[in-house]
Amino acid sequence: MMTAIRAVLISLCLLLPGCMPTGAEVAVNPYADLDWDTVEVHKANLHTHTTESDGALSPKEVVDLYADKEYTILSLTDHDTHDPEKPTWPWEDYGIDVEASGMLPIQGNEISRPDHIGSYFNDYGDSDQQSVADALEEIKDRGGLAVMFHPGRYEHRRTPQWYMDLYQTWPHLVGMEVFNQNDRYPGDREIYDDVISGLMPERPVWAMANDDFHQMEHFARSFNLFLLPPDGLNEEDFRRAFEQGRFHAVYNPSRDTSQVIIPDRISVDDRAIELTVDCADDQVVWISHGHEVHRGRTLPLSVNLGDYVRAVLKGDEGTKTLLQPFGLVGTEDRKLTELTVRNGSGSGEYLTGSRGVSIEADEPEEDKVFDKWIGDTERVEDVDAAETVIDLPEDKPVTVEATYRPAESYTLTVENGEGSGQLLEQSYGEINADIPDGYVFDAWDGDIEGVEDPRSPHSRFRMPIGAGDVTVTATFTPEEKAVFSEQLRNPSFQEGTAGWDAEQEDVRIVEKEDGTQHLAVLRRSGIMQQVDGMDLQPGQRLTLYFEVKISDPGGDPIGWVGMQFLSADDEELVSRSTTVRRNEWTPMAVSGEVVENVVAPNVWVWMRDGQMHLRDFRLRVHD
Which pLDDT score is estimated for 158? Predict the structure, then answer.
């Protein structure tokens, strides 16, 4: 098929006077035939949860929230693992006045087993589903479209070839998420590039960005900008744009939409792809086969390219706009550079001139640490970093080698606590504060670069490379001087969610025979409580103290406890958390500094595997 497409295009070109290939040719242009003078841009989120599954807000509250932020397209994609399994549809059944909202509602559902799939324009749901293929077949039979959600979540058990097989089998599988929430899975884009490197130009896959909204911290950071004709805010025109890739995927971590860059026009001819866009040339980055190959608003097709190229428009504060990929033919003679990485990962053949190719040193043998990269290192970004990037030259193969040296041993001194001793560089030791009666733990002080959680009385210390002898000191405050919020002493917690796949029936209060209680959070569960009525001032520090243990130590039990500080508009301003792994009751803490405009903190708990038990919550304000 690929050879046939190329042959037809070249034959047609040869029939036209003056038309001779000068490099790659564009065979797939998702933006072709758009009338840029009349096109309308519509903001869309297509991955949204409500209280009909594991979201914090009702369907009506969610619709109002997005409408207020000038979204015009929204799909409520509640999980099909909750009753009822059907989509949250139609909106009118949930007290929503669709006309008043100004939104185009899109029927949606999230197929949640075994992988998460966005399902649109159909009513399929099945909480017992264990086959991705069967789920896609059901969506197809019901006339729907599908998107693979957050592939980075499964990167350790799903290969790019596994995804390629799906896309080649199911034409109605049109897209893949490349940004989810606040870029929760950075591996999403690496997988996406691997997949389209193997599929383009015959089989395009469109890049999507979605909030995966469960609660306010997820709101309005990732969205899509659909390019529709005048009066095109209807299901027919939207579906056509969805299928043809006529939209951009946007990641906007600051939520400041003034930072988002979008092109006014995209022009393609036999020599170049040109963007008419209000930004500097170095803000336009062209990616082919996963790596940067060019910068500038104009991409000459004579540049060394693979089977696709896509553009990323970089705004301030981390904002990125991803254009859909252009499929290319005539690239058989592309130049490749061989990169050899000894004692590390990253070896392979790459497009000559690729920039930002990742290299990572292997884990050192026992009692050794990474030293530096040697070899062809003139284009290595940081020769002293075990994980870094390299720009590939155009005229030779490249070999780099990770080297190691014996780890030095330094003395760790723990004052007012336990854990003193000798530690090799990069090795861990536990540190525990000895809290005197009548006092509460405040923080670790001193050489705290290696302290995993400076606000926890029990933490780990990793000896930094080249640190020398170090001292950490546990500090305390008299309990009568500590200000605590009574709202968090052995709470029952309001039902809520910390996000992801929280199942509220797996969060419970356990009461012992002696009348004491503790909170039990089981696998894949989470809760959240907003603490109102606190008069917080910038510069103060808020610390959540608690005792915690993990039970069911089989496998890899792990959980997190955290806080987030919210503004009056429920915008997340600060987020802090600590990791829980110990299987005996342990005093811990998580802390954060109060910044401007904070009105309330959220306290949340999330368990990935095993069971987590918590007791004696206390929230302290440090002046």
Answer: 93
Nearest to 141 by CA among 160, 123, 167, 154: 123
Domain count, the chain: 5
The residues, ordered by sequence, that sit 6+ positions from 74 with a Cβ below 8 Å of its Cβ are 44, 45, 46, 48, 62, 63, 66, 103, 104, 105, 106
Q: Are residues 423 and 570 in the same domain?
A: no
Structure token pair of residue 398: 């490249």
Same domain for 430 and 398? Answer: no
How deeply is 126 buried, as exposed, middle or buried, from its count of CB atoms within 10 A (0-12, 13-18, 19+)? Answer: middle
Distance CA 128, CA 108 (A): 18
- Candidates 425, 368, 426; CA nearest to 402 is 368
End-of-domain residue from the set 466, 481, 496: 481
Residue 609's domain spans which residues?
Answer: 483-622
Query: Among 130-139, 200-209, 375-384, 546-555, which stretch is predicted with the lowest mean pLDDT?
Result: 546-555
The reply to whether 424 and 357 lie within a common domain is no
Residues 436 and 399 in one domain: no
pLDDT at 16: 43
> Cα–Cα distance between 74 and 87 in angstroms, integer?
13
Question: CB of 358 within 8 A of CB of 391?
Answer: no
d(CA 589, CA 453): 8
Q: Tell whether 293 and 395 lie within a shared domain.
A: no
CATH label of the domain that carries residue 568: 2.60.120.260
CATH number of the domain bearing residue 60: 3.20.20.140
Are 344 and 362 spatial neighbours (Cβ–Cβ below 8 Å)? yes
Instruction: Give residue-wise pLDDT tens across range 36-45.
Output: 999 999 999 9
Handedness of CA 321, 229, 150, 132 (dihedral sign): negative
* Whether pTM exceeds 0.85: no
Where does a domain end: 348, 372, 403? Answer: 403
Indicate if 106 and 178 belong to the same structural domain.
Answer: yes
**Per mean pLDDT, which range of 138-147, 187-196, 490-499, 559-568 is the poorest?**
490-499
Residue 561, token pair as written in the block? 């406890």
Cβ neighbours of residue 17 under 8 Å, at least 6 residues apart?
none
Check if the beta carbon of residue 438 is closer than 8 Å to that of residue 478: yes
